[in-house]
Specification:
The protein has 9 helices and 10 strands. It has 240 residues and is α/β, with parallel strands linked by helices. The strands form 3 sheets. It has a 6-stranded parallel β-sheet with strand order 7-4-3-8-9-10, sandwiched between helices. Strands 1-2 form a two-stranded antiparallel sheet. Strand 1 and strand 2 form a beta hairpin. The radius of gyration is 17 Å and the shape is globular. The C terminus is likely disordered. The protein binds dicarbonimidic diamide.
Length: 240
């Protein structure tokens, strides 16, 4: 693929020009506690199927992204075991029976190193893929994501993950303010609450794309496939 290749992707409010050499895939918080039956999300009464429908499109997208030899970055929301990076305000407002740091069905809730904090096996990062551990909702707050993207010459992000109205929207807004162009893939982002899914996606593309573009994974995958002939060899998928 020539370094200046451009792939036009159907999107709203208008097509997105994807530049593979300066675009990263950013997969937000596809963590066991949010997505798996028996995890913290379900224990709070949420319908995890609303998030689980994003697993298969994300899996296909990640496989195509890796096969094209492009940079994929994963994030996880969570805190240090001693909770020193958990603002009291976040702790107080997270209370609903159990809260961050309490023992939940998959270990201490949203604590780094606990089983529920880790990424689901279907999307497990490869050894060389950066994993950003973030204490906030946005992936730029209190992390080295911006420096990492600058190091790789990245100016565009394809954004997927959960949840649409919380960590995905917060990250896209942070990215927008830092000058990144974001393409959010509607079938690869999910909310427990259907009305929030709809509103969360609508807000991104409103007013001429006030925070970015909205597209779908099939279009990105087929565009990447046109570049496969000259791409580096596909990498093996990782496993936890
Ligand atoms: C939430 C997230 N919803 N990853 N986290 O608390 O969106």
């Amino acid at each position: 693929m020539p370094p200046d290749a451009r792939l036009p992707i159907p999107a709203q409010p208008y097509p997105f020009d994807l530049h593979p050499s300066r675009c990263a895939l950013l997969i937000i918080d596809m963590q066991r506690d949010f997505l798996e039956p028996g995890g913290f999300g379900e224990a709070l009464g949420n319908d995890v199927s609303q998030l689980r429908r994003t697993i298969e499109p994300n899996r296909r997208l990640l496989a195509a992204w890796r096969a094209a030899g492009r940079l994929a970055i994963h994030t996880r929301e969570g805190h240090r075991p001693d909770l020193s990076d958990l603002p009291p305000a976040k702790w107080r407002r997270a209370r609903s029976g159990s809260t961050i740091g309490d023992v939940g069905p998959m270990g201490r809730i949203l604590i780094r190193g606990e089983p529920g904090h880790d990424i689901i096996p279907e999307l497990y990062p490869l050894a060389h893929e950066p994993v950003i551990d973030k204490p906030g909702k946005g992936a730029f707050f209190a992390t080295d994501l911006n420096a990492l993207l600058a190091d790789h010459g990245i100016s565009q992000l394809v954004v997927t993950g959960v949840t649409t109205e919380v960590c995905v929207n917060t990250t896209v807004r942070e990215a927008n303010d830092r000058g990144y162009d974001c393409l959010v893939l509607e079938d690869c982002v999910g909310s427990y609450i259907p009305a929030f899914q709809e509103a969360g996606v609508a807000m991104i593309k409103a007013q001429g794309g006030i925070f970015g573009w909205v597209g779908n994974s099939a279009d990105v995958i087929s565009a990447l496939e046109t570049t496969r002939a000259s791409a580096p060899q596909a990498l093996e998928e990782g496993a936890p």
